[in-house]
Amino acid sequence: MKSDRRDALRLAQLLRAGELTPVWVPGEGDEALRDLVRARESAKRDLGRARQELTSFLLRHSISAPKGTKRWSRMILR
Predict the structure, then answer these.
(1) CA 71 to CA 65: how far, in whole Å?
(2) What does the alpha-carbon distance between residue 20 and residue 38 come to, in Å, rounded to a whole number?
(3) Claim: this prediction has a pTM higher than 0.70
(4) How many helices (H) and strands (E) does the chain have?
(5) How many CB atoms lie under 10 A from the CB of residue 48?
């Protein structure tokens, strides 16, 4: 059963005992940076999936990179 009175009493006891730890609320700048990091990670994941799909497609059609080149090098991407 939910009881705000019981919760308030317990919080007061914890505060008096020094058991509560402070929390940090991020500001707008911090949230913007977090959003940017999340977007970058998502884009990297999408790129990896797209590369895997393209590699699989090319392998299914027996198309491979020329000898002496790496799969995703600048030379191949041109």
Answers:
(1) 6
(2) 30
(3) no
(4) 3, 0
(5) 10
When pLDDT is cut at 50, 70 and 90, the band that residue 1 belongs to is: low
- The contacts of residue 65 (CB under 8 Å, 6+ apart) are 71, 76
Residue 26 makes CB contacts below 8 A (sequence gap 6+) with 34
Separation CA 57–CA 62 (nearest Å): 9
Residues 6+ apart with CB under 8 A from 20: 11, 14
Local structure of residue 21 (DSSP, 8 states): -
Tens of pLDDT, residue by residue over 31-46, are 999 999 999 999 999 9
Non-local (6+) Cβ contacts of 14 within 8 A are 20
